[in-house]
Design brief:
The protein has 21 helices and two strands. With 357 residues, the protein is mainly α. A two-stranded antiparallel ribbon has the order 1-2.
């Protein structure tokens, strides 16, 4: 939706759209609330038949009513149902339960409101204010300052800096928080953000970014196993993992994937953890660079990074992405071995660097 239009094209635009900064912005939001941009989805989703959706909703409602039982004794069933996709009407509540946000919220009643009343760190607040308008500006919740989304986003991010002053504010938290706010009330979005920042993406938002660097090397090691040709190509053009995976991991793909694909990935991510981000990244890398033809189209670093940052549409489609995530030949043992290897490597490099000072 971001291509420029000439005068003839503008005259042919429908009355339901307008041209802003060279981009067509619809006056009618899509089913996710987008008015334009790369994540705009004008076409209806080809999902399961209504009767299947209704059956899944009933199963999820029963499961949520007995959540502790399923968590303790039948987590396999939760995983199975998350992989099929959580029904849209159930998703907000399911995400809150899956990530542990519900437990945190119940244990810390009124803490969110207390954080809002606190003064907060002036530096963090200033940085948050600068970033608010940049988050999903083509979504109806965040399209202007008078929309409630920008105020709620500021509140959630500010509250997090008060609740966890050690981390404070990281820019990458903003799209994650905005994404959550599109699906649930601010207090629930806050506790989900706390859980995701402190548990799922632990230490990702620390200033040193050592954990993100480590996970980039883990991703590179896994790629070497599942697609040596793509791995060799990245090495050949000197594409370091941090060049392409930083935004993927820090923002949990909220800035990268089409919306329907993103929702499905998050259904699994909140159930199975950060390994799903690795698998999603591997699918993109393999799909973009797995064939000789695709690598030939990316002879240098710039072409390679451009392809990874703007993959062909079919690669990121919901059906293709989820199918390929499941068929990846990456085991828990592979993750553990690569994690141990890269952790030791970084530790040794850090010790060596300190010894040279």
């Amino acid at each position: 939706m971001a291509s420029a239009f000439n005068a003839d094209t503008i005259s042919e635009c429908s009355e339901a759209s307008t041209l802003i900064d060279g981009s067509v912005i619809s006056t009618v939001p899509d089913r996710h609330g987008f008015l334009g941009g790369s994540q705009y989805s004008p076409e209806p989703r080809q999902g399961p038949p209504p009767e299947i959706v209704l059956r899944r909703e009933r199963k999820w409602l029963k499961m949520l009513s007995q959540w502790n039982f399923y968590m303790d004794r039948n987590y396999r069933k939760i995983k199975e149902r998350c992989r099929k996709g959580i029904p849209m009407s159930i998703r907000p509540r399911a995400w809150l339960y899956l990530c542990g946000g519900k437990i945190l919220m119940d244990k810390n009643q009124n803490l969110y409101e207390d954080c809002l009343r606190a003064d907060g760190d002036p530096k963090c607040i200033e940085e948050i204010k600068k970033d608010i308008h940049r988050q999903f500006p083509t979504h109806e919740m965040f399209s202007s300052e008078d929309k409630p989304g920008q105020t709620e986003l500021f509140n959630v991010l500010k509250a997090y800096t008060v609740q966890n002053p050690k981390i404070g504010y990281c820019q990458a938290q903003a799209p994650v928080a905005a994404f959550l706010l599109m699906h649930m009330p601010a207090v629930q979005a806050f506790w989900c953000l706390v859980s995701i920042s402190d548990k799922y993406l632990e230490d990702y938002y620390s200033p040193s970014m050592e954990v993100v660097q480590r996970d980039g090397l883990i991703l590179q090691g896994l790629l070497k196993k599942v697609c040596p040709a793509a791995y060799k190509h990245l090495k050949k053009v000197n594409a370091e993992p941090m060049f392409y995976c930083t935004e993927w991991f820090l923002c949990a793909f909220t800035r990268t994937l089409p919306w329907d694909s993103l929702l499905r990935v998050w259904d699994i991510f909140l159930c199975e953890g950060v390994k799903i981000l690795f698998k999603t990244a591997l699918v993109i890398l393999i799909s973009c660079l797995g064939t000789a033809k695709s690598r030939k189209q990316c002879p240098g670093l710039c072409e390679t990074l451009n392809r990874l940052r703007n993959p062909p549409e079919e690669i990121l489609s919901e059906q293709n992405l989820i199918y390929n995530i499941y068929r990846l030949d990456v085991s828990e043992k592979d993750f553990e071995m690569e994690h141990q290897k890269q952790t030791v490597k970084l530790k040794n490099e850090k010790a060596a660097a300190n010894g040279q000072r």
